[in-house]
C-alpha cells in the first residue's frame, strides 16, 4: 500500500505522530491530548484533526466517547501500510519486520515462480526482462534499483496468471521496497541481477522446478545481504568511541 503523500504541515504531523506511536514513544492505550500536541507541534486543531483521521485510517488510533482519542492495540494496526513499515524500520523494529517478510516471501514466491514457468506469456517475459534491464542500469541509484526490483517481483506474480496471486504485490511490495532501501544503500550487498536472471531464464524455458529452485536461491541471497548489513552495523557500533554511542 502506498505511503501517505500529504505534504506541508499536515504531512509532517502525520509522520511525527505516526513514528512516535509505532516506536512506542506514545504507548498502546495512551490517550492523546490533542490540544497539547497541537501546541507542541505549533499547529491548529484543524490540522491535528485531519492528521488524526489519517492515523485512524492506518489503524493506529481510535476515538470513543468519554475516553477520547487513544492508541489502539498493535493487532489493529495495518502492518502492511508503507508508512507503518517505514516507521517500524526507522524506529529500530526493522529486524523483526524483515524476518517476517522473509517468511512470507519463502511461502509465496517460490510457488509463484513455479507457476509462472507454466503459465507465463510473451508479454510477461517482456515485463520481467524490462525490469531486469532497469535493475542492471540502476545499481548506483538506490531508489531506481528498489523500483526495478519491485517491478520484477510484481511481473513475476502477474506471470502466474492467477489474479489473486497477482494482487499479492499489495502484501509484499511495501516491505520489499523498505528492504531494498536498506540493501541498495549498503556497499556489502551482492549484485542482484544474476539471481534474478536465473529466475527469468527458468521461467522463459518453462522449467517450473528450476524456477522454484532459482527463487529459493534468490531468497537465500536476500537473507545473506541482510545478515551482512546487520554484521556491518554491529561492527560500526563497536568501533565508535564510547562517548559517541
Textual characterization of the structure:
This protein is mainly α and 245 residues long. Helices cover 70% and strands 3% of the residues. It has 10 helices and 2 strands; from the N terminus they run αααββααααααα. It has helices at 8-23, 34-41, 45-57, 82-119, 122-137, 142-158, 163-166, 169-183, 193-204, 208-239, and strands spanning 61-64, 68-71. Strands 1-2 form a two-stranded antiparallel ribbon. A hairpin with a 3-residue loop joins strand 1 and strand 2 (68-71). The longest helix is centred in the middle third of the chain and has 38 residues, at 82-119. The protein is elongated and about 65 Å long. The two termini are 35 Å apart. The model has no long low-confidence stretch (mean pLDDT 88).
Cα gyration radius (Å): 21 Å
| Helix and strand run | HHHEEHHHHHHH
The separation of the N and C termini measures: 35 Å
Shape: elongated
Mean pLDDT: 88
Low-confidence segments:
none
Helix content: 55-70%
Biggest sheet architecture: 2 strands, antiparallel
- Share of β-strand residues: under 5%
Please give the order of strands in the largest beta sheet: 1-2
The number of distinct helices, counting runs of at least 4 residues, comes to: 10
Question: Care to count the β-strands?
Answer: 2
Q: Based on helices, strands and strand pairing, what is the structural class?
A: mainly alpha
Which labels suit this protein?
245 residues; mainly alpha; two-stranded antiparallel ribbon; 2 strands; elongated
Amino acid at each position: 500500500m502506498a505511503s501517505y503523500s500529504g505534504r506541508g504541515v499536515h504531512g509532517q504531523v502525520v509522520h511525527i505522530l505516526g513514528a512516535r506511536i509505532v516506536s512506542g514513544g506514545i504507548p498502546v492505550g495512551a490517550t492523546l491530548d490533542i490540544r497539547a500536541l497541537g501546541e507542541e507541534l505549533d499547529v491548529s486543531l484543524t490540522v491535528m484533526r485531519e492528521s488524526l483521521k489519517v492515523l485512524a485510517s492506518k489503524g493506529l488510533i481510535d476515538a470513543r466517547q468519554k475516553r477520547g482519542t487513544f492508541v489502539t492495540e498493535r493487532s489493529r494496526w495495518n502492518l502492511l501500510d508503507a508508512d507503518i513499515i517505514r516507521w517500524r524500520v526507522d524506529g529500530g523494529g526493522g529486524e523483526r519486520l524483515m524476518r517476517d517478510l522473509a517468511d512470507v516471501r519463502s511461502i509465496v514466491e517460490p510457488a509463484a515462480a513455479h507457476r509462472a514457468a507454466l503459465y507465463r506469456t510473451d508479454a510477461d517475459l517482456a515485463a520481467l526482462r524490462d525490469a531486469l534491464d532497469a535493475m542492471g542500469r540502476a545499481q548506483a541509484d538506490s531508489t531506481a534499483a528498489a523500483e526495478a526490483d519491485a517491478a520484477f517481483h510484481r511481473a513475476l506474480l502477474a506471470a502466474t496468471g492467477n489474479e489473486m496471486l497477482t494482487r499479492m504485490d499489495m502484501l509484499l511490495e511495501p516491505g520489499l521496497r523498505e528492504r531494498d532501501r536498506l540493501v541498495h544503500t549498503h556497499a556489502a550487498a551482492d549484485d542482484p541481477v544474476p539471481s534474478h536472471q536465473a529466475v527469468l531464464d527458468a521461467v522463459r524455458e518453462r522449467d517450473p522446478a528450476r524456477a522454484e529452485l532459482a527463487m529459493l536461491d534468490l531468497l537465500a541471497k536476500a537473507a545473506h545481504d541482510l545478515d551482512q548489513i546487520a554484521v556491518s552495523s554491529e561492527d560500526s557500533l563497536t568501533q565508535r568511541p564510547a562517548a559517541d554511542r
